[in-house]
Inverse folding.
């Protein structure tokens, strides 16, 4: 991937202020809104079935995050998804905790079956569970056995490409090494920080940012998702570099938002560690 | 308005620790609670219809914020509003996203029709939608066409006064220039910072602070709302002045709370840029 | 209590990363998740009745916090509690606002009656309300008449021991002086900071941390709860010491998480002010 695509993808987000409708969990929803604002997008949250069609209509895309789903928000997800599909808006699915409960696995699967999901963003355990694989789980954390490493990178990329081919979605699997793939191409991104697992919401925030990039870059969906994942990873890595001796996850969260807020297309281009993986 | 009224309004909040019952959206609810604590009030949140009458009974006022309403919280809003009205407690309405969906516009209108709302606090697009005007919308953001400017200030103030006369509420319209009006008088407040639009919750926090000021200053409702709006604007402006080169919206949010926490009546008196507008 | 028990209790949390299932209020849920991550545990939130049994099954313990309960989450609490009881997982109950409404008092009482609650963590007004005493209340704050002081310390400790004997739970009553007791022994902890009452969520975060300590230290429940309460108090006290002239409750919240994140067993051992109280 040419560096230019990363810069252009971010610059376009900032130039167009995409309006993103989020049905997401109540744990990290505030961080999600602030992350969207930091990256230059505009968030709106609505999960009431009677409200979501109108809200989706004025937005450019939809996030479906199953982190704290309940019967009512599930209904809202399907109503919003239907409207997004009618309008051709990109839908980004975050299967939080898929594999950890039947309801989560089933709901994520149903959403994927019913709607033309543009992007799936999760950790490897969640994406494997969604793909119908063995559902080892540590709740919302990746199961250590599932972590993407240099050793299993080629196989992981093949899995991502295959799942992309099967679903028609761009598949973004994040962890120590991130993979972003469509049916034909796969990229590894080696930014990030282990501290991102010591705050809640790093994954959820990224999912929302993926939606902003998808809305702003409709003609370059795969590249836009590589850019989104690299932007978040670079922000995490930079935030780690800013940590002083007294700092902990409270400060790390603040730094992460601050860096997303100030991230330029040029800085993303220079800092992103993106490699296209051979078949 | 005499500066003294601003200082007295804030000092009274800090001296009396008003207990404010909030039915508000789950996006910014944590910021709302911390903003109330920062300004010297005490927050309690409850939206369950079976709980809200008891909670409202022990509180001094009620915030109704429609940011993420659902069928269940709407029911809670009406139950709480009824109890607040019985007790003569001030109700502050924040019509978040009115104009963006039928449910939001209708619910805000129904609340306004049914209860003796003391204060309406929103951006101009939301307040216009509530007033039945043309519903241009950018979701929860003000539509650029609706922004209050020096050029349309007199007309905007007249609109605010008219809507106040029609509803019996103090109308607080916030943006680059804030307007606070009752049926007879209107004030412009020129504090604030554009960064307040780059965090989620600046408006929601202000709405809660408006409620705290209303509860603490029952005999000077209009003045108290000018003070609340000026306090938030001054905090935003001061927070912007504290921003360093690496800071973004993460730090801005923290600074905003910190400044509200430390804001004194004297500092408010000195920093507020309040002008009474002629008819 | 030997200092060693405090150090060991925290070290075991960090060594074992207990997975804690939280059904808690939407006001402070983000802080709860970050506090659990800071202390070395792993949070998962789920309140949907159809989801909670599966989630509880993969976790080690359960937090039931009634801060913003509604009919649906109450149902989720009972379903999760049943599963935790089947599995012998510790349940920690936080009766937020018990005494402030019939629904809260009744629900907390029903949970206590139905399940083998391991730990009750609240302020004195809430715990008194739960114990069926006079229900004076300041909403979610302690009523000044109920505050634990040096003058009423012995009587307060006797109350805590009696309530522990009656319920079978460890009782943790937090305030200016904290008390942790089982039926036989009671401890006073004199760490903490008045600033903990100027942020939302200090109590909720502690409740989650109590659960993490209970899960990690099944053979030393009382000691583990003394350690949890001392850890939070020490963090608050240290955070207060870090406050600069411009800092307010925004920064205090960040410092609190940072200090929890960096807190070592040795620092806890050295900083905790724990006294066993004679009968």
């Amino acid at each position: 991937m040419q560096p230019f695509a990363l810069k252009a993808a971010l610059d376009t987000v900032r130039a167009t202020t995409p309006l993103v409708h989020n049905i997401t969990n109540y744990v990290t929803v505030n961080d999600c809104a602030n992350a969207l604002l930091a990256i230059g997008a505009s968030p709106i949250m609505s999960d009431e079935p009677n409200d979501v069609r109108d809200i989706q209509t004025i937005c450019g895309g939809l996030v479906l995050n199953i982190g704290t789903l309940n019967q009512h928000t599930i209904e809202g997800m399907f109503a919003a998804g239907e409207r997004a599909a009618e309008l051709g808006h990109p839908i980004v699915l975050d299967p939080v905790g898929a594999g950890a409960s039947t309801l989560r696995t089933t709901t994520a699967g149903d959403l994927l079956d019913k709607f033309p999901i543009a992007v799936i963003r999760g950790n490897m355990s969640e994406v494997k569970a969604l793909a119908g694989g063995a559902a080892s789980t540590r709740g919302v954390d990746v199961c250590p056995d599932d972590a993407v490493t240099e050793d299993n990178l080629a196989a992981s990329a093949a899995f991502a490409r295959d799942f992309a081919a099967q679903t028609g979605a761009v598949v973004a699997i994040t962890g120590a090494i991130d993979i972003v793939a469509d049916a034909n191409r796969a990229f590894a991104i080696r930014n990030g920080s282990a501290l991102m697992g010591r705050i809640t919401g790093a994954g959820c925030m990224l999912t929302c940012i993926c939606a902003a990039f998808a809305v702003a870059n409709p003609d370059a969906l795969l590249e836009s998702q590589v850019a989104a994942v690299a932007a978040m990873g670079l922000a995490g890595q930079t935030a780690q570099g800013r940590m002083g001796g007294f700092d902990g996850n409270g400060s790390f969260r603040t730094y992460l938002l601050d860096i997303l807020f100030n991230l330029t297309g040029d800085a993303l281009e220079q800092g992103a560690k993106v490699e296209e993986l051979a078949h």
Remarks:
- Chain A touches chain C through 35 residues (CB under 8 Å).
- Residues 3-277 of chain A form a domain with the UDP-N-acetylmuramoyl-L-alanine:D-glutamate ligase fold (CATH 3.40.1190.20).
